Automatic annotation (TrEMBL):
GO terms for biological process: 'de novo' AMP biosynthetic process; IMP metabolic process. It comes from Nocardioides cavernaquae. It is found in: Cytoplasm. Mg(2+) binds at residues 13, 42. This is Adenylosuccinate synthetase. One of its GO terms (molecular function) is adenylosuccinate synthase activity. Plays an important role in the de novo pathway of purine nucleotide biosynthesis. Catalyzes the first committed step in the biosynthesis of AMP from IMP. The active site is at 13 (proton acceptor), 43 (proton donor), 141. GTP binds at residues 12-18, 42-44, 306, 332-334, 414-416. IMP binds at residues 13-16, 40-43, 130, 144, 225, 240, 304. It is an enzyme of class 6 (ligase).
Length: 428
């Protein structure tokens, strides 16, 4: 039985939550796994008109019978974890089937403090992070002064690790940022407050998932963030601090690449981005404002307005390549219902030269000017369409054209936020 990866093919917020939820409810899925990022994610799931948002938790938490897994590659804020769990419990969701890796790194309150002050320090060069402490927690991990989930269960070790983690940071906080030092005991106390509730959830998630795959179970890896936010393959430095690409799933879960059967890239029928950084098809006109308004493009985690632009096939092809996508899931096609004419970026012009592939350097990408092809709009409400043939002719042409230039077949098409507002498969 398969291991399936669902990941973001653009700059995030493509509808990964919806795609994951759809797969988890239409196929018998045994495990839904987060492998990177933390509560910087915001995934929306709409079930029978009721809206849920998950941040640190996998969307599978809403799927009865599925086990939700927070694997080793995730950075876990215990405070955010229990806040999110309590919110779901209040709404009557059964959250018993959740396990957390003993090797996942912890986000403590000082990580978000450092995230915020360092952003302020960057001034006009700021990344526009979510301020959740993601970057500083991954920096500690790579710097080998991180605190892992297992460390919470031995107070002596925890204290020693917190001391080591804060040693240098307090110099920087007081001398560079002119802030108060963080007290070791306050952090130890903050983290110990969660240990009792966390302990029963903690397991070796790599062993669990490999044994599950050996036993023929189906495992769904739910990506967070996206390809263009990947610290290696995205628009560095305007990225997150993890590897949301397909390769990151293997590292973040302790599962070998040979075990992955499908890699689904979720992609919007246009493009959005939150935070700073280059965005070739970004619109600053009425079209951009309309995409923002009709698409409801407001961040689930931070409430920030998302920047909007047309579909970028160069990015789609790049995502197909670096992730080895077996298919795409195209979302939010319905948002384009009212346009007369829809531009699609098919290549870039950079310094007078046409680029069909992502340029090699960031400087070139910053200077990329989209080359557009134009498609006739369909001017019809498609939210009720359930088969490819239900779609108006012009919408069919648009989808087929995107599919041809994007580098992988389209497995599904979203025509609304609801689970049922989907065309799967688009056609034979
Ligand atoms: P994620 O971070 O990739 O899970 O995406 P978000 O939840 O942050 O943002 C996607 C938004 O689009 C959410 O509000 C979804 O409910 C919504 N959505 C997903 N698919 C569709 C679709 O096909 N049509 C419309 N209109 N909305 C969709
Ligand atoms: P989902 O999973 C969109 C962006 C932030 C910022 C950059 C770095 O919902 O698609 P970070 O706090 O991660 O250090 O911020 O990454 N970012 C996202 N943008 N969707 C997300 O998650 C994001 N997670 C991080 O806006 O530009
Ligand atoms: Mg999101």
């Amino acid at each position: 039985m398969p291991a399936i990866v669902v990941l973001g093919a653009q700059w995030g917020d493509e509808g990964k939550g919806k795609a994951t939820d759809l797969l988890a409810t239409t196929d018998p899925i045994d495990y839904v796994v987060r492998t990177s990022g933390g509560h910087n994610a915001g995934h929306t799931i709409v079930v029978n008109g009721e809206k849920f948002a998950t941040h640190l938790l996998p969307s599978g938490i809403l799927t009865p019978g599925a086990t939700s897994v927070i694997a080793n590659g995730v950075v876990v804020s215990p405070e955010a974890l229990f806040r999110e769990l309590d919110g779901l419990i209040e709404r009557g969701v059964d959250v018993a089937n959740l396990v957390v890796s003993s090797n996942a790194h912890i986000i403590a309150s000082y990580h978000s403090t450092i995230d915020k002050v360092s952003e302020r320090f960057l001034g006009k060069n700021q990344i526009g992070t979510t301020g959740r402490g993601i970057g500083p927690a991954y920096a500690d991990k790579v710097n080998r002064v991180g605190i892992r989930v297992a460390d919470l269960f031995d107070e002596k070790i925890l204290r020693a690790k917190v001391e080591a983690a804060l040693d240098m940071k307090n110099h920087v906080l007081t001398k560079v940022y002119n802030r108060r030092a963080v007290e070791v005991e306050a952090v130890v106390e903050e983290l110990l407050a969660y240990t009792e509730r966390l302990r029963p959830m903690v397991v070796d998630t790599s062993l669990l998932l490999n044994q599950a795959l050996d036993a023929g179970k189906t495992v769904l890896f739910e990506g967070a963030q996206a390809t263009m936010l990947d610290v290696d393959h995205g628009t560095y430095p305007f990225v997150t601090s993890s590897n949301p690409v397909a390769g990151g799933v293997c590292v973040g879960a302790g599962v070998g690449p040979t075990r992955i059967d499908r890699v689904i890239g979720v992609i919007k029928a246009y493009t959005t981005r939150v935070g700073s950084g280059p965005f070739p098809t970004e619109l600053f006109d009425e079209d951009g404002a309309n995409l923002q308004r009709i698409g409801g493009e407001i961040g689930v985690s931070t409430g920030r307005t998302r920047r909007c632009g047309w579909y970028d096939a160069v990015i789609a092809r790049y995502s197909a390549r670096v992730n080895g996508l077996t298919e795409f899931f195209l979302t939010k096609l319905d948002v384009l219902d009212s346009w007369e004419r829809i531009p699609v970026c098919v290549a870039y012009e950079i310094d007078g030269v046409r680029h069909d592939e992502m340029p090699m350097t960031q400087t070139e990408f910053h200077n990329a000017v989209p080359i557009y092809e134009y498609f006739e709009g369909w001017k019809t409400d498609i939210s009720g369409c359930r088969t490819f043939e239900d779609l108006p002719k012009n919408a069919q042409v648009y989808v087929k054209a995107l599919e041809e230039i994007s580098g992988a077949p389209f497995w599904g098409i979203g025509v609304g936020p609801g689970r049922e507002q989907t065309i799967v498969p688009p056609r034979d």
